[in-house]
Amino acid sequence: MTFCSSDWLSFGVMPAIEGEKDDTRFAEWSALLLDQAILAEGGQLEDPAGFVARINQLMLALAG
Predict the structure, then answer these.
(1) CA angle, 15 as apex, 25 and 56 as ends, to 5°?
(2) Do 25 and 59 form a contact (C-beta atoms < 8 A)?
(3) Which of 16, 43, 59, 62 is a good FRET partner for 26, with 20 to 30 A between their CA atoms?
(4) pLDDT tens for residues 35-62?
(5) Cα-Cα-Cα-Cα dihedral sign, residues 7, 13, 18, 19
(6) Once rounded to an integer, what is the mean pLDDT over residues 17-46?
(7) CA–CA separation, 5 vs 25, rounded Å?
(8) Which whole-number Å values give the CA distances from 25 to 14, 16, 30, 40, in the listed order?
(9) 29 CB contacts (<8 Å, ≥6 apart)?
């Protein structure tokens, strides 16, 4: 089975983001996806520490 980033978006993250009721968390997910797209294109992030902080916050929230 080949994994494609669009599969991850279609079946994993996007449905979860679309159902997100918390505006702050929605904004965090949106910023995280934008930063990932920038990195995937070989770009550099303006705020790498913010990127890591968003990942950590979201992982902690998902962990319960």
Answers:
(1) 35
(2) no
(3) 43
(4) 988 998 999 999 999 999 999 988 898 8
(5) positive
(6) 88
(7) 21
(8) 13, 11, 9, 22
(9) 13, 16, 17, 20, 58
